[in-house]
């Protein structure tokens, strides 16, 4: 079945990797089923929503490889919400309540003290017109609650399996605040109905909302979409993610030079039964992913684990796949350069350092050559083969140096690596030496 899914972020900050997990899972389900992905901005909070954040979300999703089939804004649909809200009021399913936050808090405390669940007691249903008028004369503005059917609501969750919630243990939810603005629940259901959403895929922190939304779907449309609640990501220390954790924002990962595909793979695959592994592209990720592979337990997103995956992806990339990006980064090497250094970088930006070592000389923080190796370097210099060079030159040269000096192993190779690259580790010198060339090598042995 071609699934119609949606990702509905609030444009109140930069989205983080946990948000990306939800977006990616929805996208993969749409891709795999030949369906449709809707990007729907939950921007009804006029005070906190910002266009720059909406623009940033679009950039982040595009970077990940998510291409929405439709883009919607809830702020453009207020008339639809008002119409449905009035319908619910006329049906007696939305009722006005005048309790203040303090009064509700005291009521909940009294219920707990009596060993009762802190469920709203529906006292507002018994208010007379005179009492409502008196409250409004005091300046109180009503918030509006949805009158739940006190029944058991059950559904088969795409991740969690059979689920049920006893609605008599749930407070009638507030759908409209005292200032007339909507909470997320009602606009979300109306949008899902109007946009033909067939599957709602979101984090498992929304499981308890589902019974309310199912009742709204049944009341307003008679048809209920499927639901799937995936596990959440936490920080490396187990904390819940929020937009305040800028280090885990997609924007920061993009700016830090991580591969979008590495971020996508890591965000989706951790917390599933599949091992984290390099994949060719998003289609391969879609082919691998399935909702029934998702764990019910939260998973830690550790940036320290993202780096190795990023490196493994780069180590498998051909020169054609990266040549344009290398050129944009002013890295002028050819395929031979890329094949020599790709196994020693974690991010593509690291290639710049090796290109600078080739073109500009040893780095400022280069490992110093030992004075004790002066005679060794003089001998190595005298035995340097004439050009042309290829991948056999290194072996020919070091074999000659070994025979002349008696050095072998680390004592032979490490001084040469330090002299030629200024580093104690790096690319295989058999591949790197021809890139340096005769004159640069000669100069660095001096």
Automatic annotation (TrEMBL):
ATP binds at residue 243. One of its GO terms (biological process) is glutamyl-tRNA aminoacylation. It holds the Pfam family tRNA-synt_1c. The keyword Transmembrane does not apply. It catalyses: tRNA(Glu) + L-glutamate + ATP = L-glutamyl-tRNA(Glu) + AMP + diphosphate. Its main location: cytoplasm. It comes from the Bacteria. A motif ('HIGH' region) lies at residues 9-19. InterPro entries: aa-tRNA-synth_I_cd-bd, aa-tRNA-synth_I_codon-bd_sub2, aa-tRNA-synth_I_CS, aa_tRNA-synth_I_cd-bd_sf, Glu-tRNA-ligase_bac/mito, Glu/Gln-tRNA-synth, Glu/Gln-tRNA-synth_Ib_cat-dom, GluQ/Sye. It is found in: Cytoplasm. GO terms for cellular component: cytoplasm. A motif ('KMSKS' region) lies at residues 240-244. Residues 370-445 form the Aminoacyl-tRNA synthetase class I anticodon-binding domain. Keywords: Aminoacyl-tRNA synthetase, ATP-binding, Cytoplasm, Ligase, Nucleotide-binding, Protein biosynthesis. Belongs to the class-I aminoacyl-tRNA synthetase family. Glutamate--tRNA ligase type 1 subfamily. Monomer. This is Glutamate--tRNA ligase. It comes from Cohaesibacter gelatinilyticus.
